[in-house]
Hints:
CATH superfamily: Protein of unknown function UPF0759
Strand order of the largest sheet: 4-5-6-7
Order of helices and strands: EHEHEEEHEHE
Shape: globular
Number of strands: 7
Number of helices: 4
CATH topology: TIM Barrel
Helix content: 25-40%
Largest sheet: 4 strands, parallel
Number of domains: 1
Amino acid sequence: xxxxxxCVLFQLHPGITYSEDNLERILQTxxxxxxxxxxxxxxxxxxxxxxxxxxxxxxxxxxxxxxxxPEEVIKTAPVLYYRFHGVPQLYFSAxxxxxxxxxxxxxxxxxxTTDVFCYFNNDIEVAAVRNARELQKIASAIPHYTGxxxxxxxxxxxxNLFDLD
Length: 165
């Protein structure tokens, strides 16, 4: 599985707010076997103390496009991870080419990045498929400079974790 697995995403409940104790508890639960990515859902996590600690542990801060949360790309590890959930309407809204270009430019800003993962979850009207293809097209049109990796995009299927047939 190691050869096929890019990252392990840990998505926190929106009710979990930042505190030093909460961050320490989260860090204690993570292993070192995989590339760990943390997706926070409360705006209190977007702060310098969190970025600093995640950088020290080489844990990826998952940037997200989610109603009411900051949308910037944040680098805390060599791997960048960004999720598109649909804004302003969660799981529904499509992204304009202009917005996708802005995100790609934000991803290009960071040197020393080994991988970039972008996932689309705005799938109610199949916007995720169109947006993933458009972002790949935008990415392929940008010249690749040393240190800027190839973009990987994907779709997040809605499946029950116990439905693994």
